[in-house]
From TrEMBL:
Domain GGDEF: 242-375
Annotated transmembrane regions: 38-62, 68-90, 102-123, 129-148
PROSITE patterns assigned to the protein according to its UniProt record, in alphabetical order: GGDEF
InterPro entries: DGC-Regulatory_Protein (IPR052163), GGDEF_dom (IPR000160), Nucleotide_cyclase (IPR029787), Rev_trsase/Diguanyl_cyclase (IPR043128)
Classification lineage: Bacteria, Pseudomonadati, Pseudomonadota, Alphaproteobacteria, Hyphomicrobiales
Name this protein carries in UniProt: GGDEF domain-containing protein
GO molecular function: catalytic activity
Organism: Hansschlegelia plantiphila
Length: 382
């Protein structure tokens, strides 16, 4: 896999979307990872283009005819353009900008077609040294094409066909009946590579799905689906703004409901509360469950004057009636402690400590209310 700091754009053209298709119902996150794998690295790129350009140069020097000189010119041009597209993609991916993925994929297919063209004219040349070199080089490169691009089996198949298909086209005109064996060998080889790419792709996608599921379970609460403490810590580290409000919520009266109506009813209430939190938050905000009836909400862009009003919205929503069963309705209260970054620190532990202390004050003040932790300067003066 590529460096996780890099993000490559998904293809947008109809043809390139088809080429990069990774299978049915593949999550977007995995699609992006598979597209990233198609870009490879500079050493991998260099190995391929140096090989094909060197073979074209040797053939052009030996034959010194327009078709071979044209092949060499095409290889050099494609090498320069593909390298530029690759470097631009690397730079833009690190900057989280749109990458020329469509162009890069098309250039890859054109390069394989150039290799196929060179093999075609080498066989027709009648120079068996040149033909053998071109065919050997093509066979070696196709293996790399297939196993480097199995993240997109259709792309691998298209590049394999463009590279080796011309061998079959040239076979009837090679001047030697023995060469007609290519009609049996080449299609079998292309199909075999296609099957191998599909199987490797399926294995990779299954592995990535399992890793994704494992990571999700490690960072999310199994009951509500909200992030757990580990997920909250990750969201805190990944936040884009330094200024953030952390609201520590405790459901007042939850234990009594759990004891009176059973754990199943308590679980339903927690799920309903989590859903209400989701509806109140923006895309960049995060709600997490970090304990039995304890939730934490991270909200960007709230200052000391705005946080209480937002906390009151949470209290109002979470305190509304819950329909646990057709004939069972309950109410709970919500106490909220608020801490602010950077006023109370930039680390999650610092904000949790400050918000927990404010939550304690809210509960001892009669519950179902909000208390904002005092600023560090005020706390020290007190």
């Amino acid at each position: 896999m590529r460096d996780k700091l890099r993000t490559f754009s998904l293809p947008t053209w109809a043809a390139t979307r088809w080429l990069a298709h990774a299978g049915q119902d593949v999550p977007l996150e995995i699609q992006r990872a598979l597209v990233a794998s198609l870009f490879g690295t500079l050493p991998i790129f260099a190995g391929g283009v140096i090989n094909s350009t060197l073979v074209a140069a040797i053939a052009a020097a030996r034959m010194q005819t327009a078709p071979f000189i044209g092949w060499l010119a095409c290889e050099i041009l494609l090498c320069v353009v593909r390298l530029a597209a690759l470097l631009i993609s690397f730079r833009r991916s690190e900057q989280r900008r749109t990458t020329p993925t469509d162009l890069y994929l098309v250039l890859g297919v054109l390069w394989s077609a150039s290799v196929g063209y060179g093999t075609f004219i080498s066989i027709l040349s009648g120079d068996w040294a040149v033909a053998a070199l071109a065919c050997l080089s093509t066979g070696a490169m196709v293996g790399g094409i297939c196993f480097r691009n199995f993240g997109a089996p259709r792309l691998a198949a298209a590049m394999t066909l463009c590279s080796m298909g011309p061998i079959c086209a040239a076979a009837p005109f090679a001047g030697d009946p023995v060469f007609l064996a290519a009609f049996l060998q080449i299609p079998f080889y292309i199909v075999s590579m296609r099957i191998a790419a599909l199987k490797l792709n399926g294995l990779l996608v299954a592995t990535m799905r399992a890793e994704r599921e494992h990571e999700h379970q490690a960072r999310h609460d199994p009951l509500t689906g909200l992030p757990n403490r580990a997920g909250l810590r990750r969201a805190m580290v990944a936040r884009r703004e330094r200024s953030v409000a952390l609201l520590y919520l405790d459901l007042d009266g939850f234990k009594a409901i759990n004891d009176s109506h059973g754990h199943g009813a308590g679980d339903r209430l927690l799920n309903m509360a989590a859903e209400r939190l989701r509806r109140l938050l923006r895309t960049d905000d995060v709600a997490a469950r970090i304990g039995g009836d304890e939730f934490v909400v991270l909200v960007h862009g709230l200052d000391r004057t705005q946080a209480p009003a937002f906390a009151e919205r949470l209290i109002h929503s979470l305190s509304a009636v819950y329909q646990l069963e057709p004939n069972v309705t309950v109410r709970i209260g919500v106490s909220v402690g608020v801490a602010l970054a950077p006023d109370h620190g930039d680390e999650l532990s610092e904000l949790l400590d400050a918000a927990d202390a404010a939550l304690y004050r809210a509960k001892t003040s009669g519950k179902n209310c909000c208390v904002v932790a005092p600023s560090l300067g005020a706390a020290e003066s007190a």
